[in-house]
């Protein structure tokens, strides 16, 4: 009996456990540095999720013994969150009012958004990588440029919901800052 109990405990300890799914809240806004569109015009926004093999709210997986059963999810579809974020950013720059010019058309393609942690009994390393392609179309020109992020972190244990939420939001903020401080993009949008 004693041997059976010890064997059962050893098997349970060695097999590890499947990590539970996590849902995190992604920020739908980011405060931009000062700037205003000149002349006033409206903007049409479209976000296209070009990822395959994942649900629209899936950001990746938490790793562990069965990573496919341990997804990291956003509170709603990623494209909806990024649409709201992009609309809010353009509103801060003064877009949205009637003006003499045709609306600017902005398209953000989500080519990759992958949160992943190592498989195995102990989760001690996670990677966050995403790649966007931003296209701005005005009367005069078409501006297209990729923006991305890639970071790997070593960890003592599987990250908590609050850790993952903070990491993903801070990473999105870094890319958003890069996008909206890009002199080429601001020139294409006539933002001064």
> Mean pLDDT across all residues, rounded?
88
How many strand elements?
7
The geometry reads as: elongated
Arrangement of strands in the largest sheet: 2-5-6-7
Share in helix:
25-40%
Structural class: alpha/beta
Parts with pLDDT < 50 across at least 5 consecutive residues: 4-15
Q: Biggest sheet, in brief? A: 4 strands, mixed
- Percentage of residues in DSSP E strands: 25-35%
Give a topology summary.
Elements: H1 2-15, E1 22-24, E2 43-49, E3 58-61, E4 71-74, H2 78-92, E5 104-117, E6 125-137, E7 142-154, H3 161-180, H4 183-188
Parallel strand pairs: 1-4, 2-5
Antiparallel strand pairs: 3-4, 5-6, 6-7
How does this model look, in words?
The chain is an alpha/beta fold and 192 residues long. Helices cover 29% and strands 30% of the residues. The chain contains 4 helices and 7 strands. It has helices at residues 2-15, 78-92, 161-180, 183-188; strands at residues 22-24, 43-49, 58-61, 71-74, 104-117, 125-137, 142-154. A 4-stranded mixed β-sheet has the order 2-5-6-7. The longest helix has 20 residues, at 161-180. The chain is elongated, with a radius of gyration of 21 Å. The termini are far apart.
Q: Can you summarize this structure?
A:
With 192 residues, the chain is α/β, with parallel strands linked by helices. The chain has four helices and seven strands. The N and C termini lie far apart (78 Å).
